[in-house]
Amino acid sequence: MASLYKKGDIWYISSMADNKRLSVSLRTKDKRVAKQLNPKAELKLLSHLSGVTKPSRNLPFDELAKCYLKADHNWSKRTKELNEYVFHSYQSGKPLPLNPTSRSIFVRTIGV
Q1: 69 and 32 share a domain?
Q2: Residues with Cβ < 8 Å from 56, sequence gap 6 or more?
């Protein structure tokens, strides 16, 4: 059984299995919304605790960039080329561009 609790202004759900406790933020300040999200979040929590599903692993940036670029984003050819260039430049260690517009494109694409 999972418990619903409030920490600060945000609602959380917490559950325990095999002496392991896992808590997840429901990302809401509204109690009614938290109660609506509770069943789905509880199922997800219990599946992680029981080992049915594995928590997502942290990927290195280069693998994450490859997965992101392979995904179908419905980009134009030019946008795909630009994003590939931005990620390649960042991975090769080039500094951010001096031009403010170009720099903001890099920052938005990479999320620096």
Answers
A1: no
A2: none
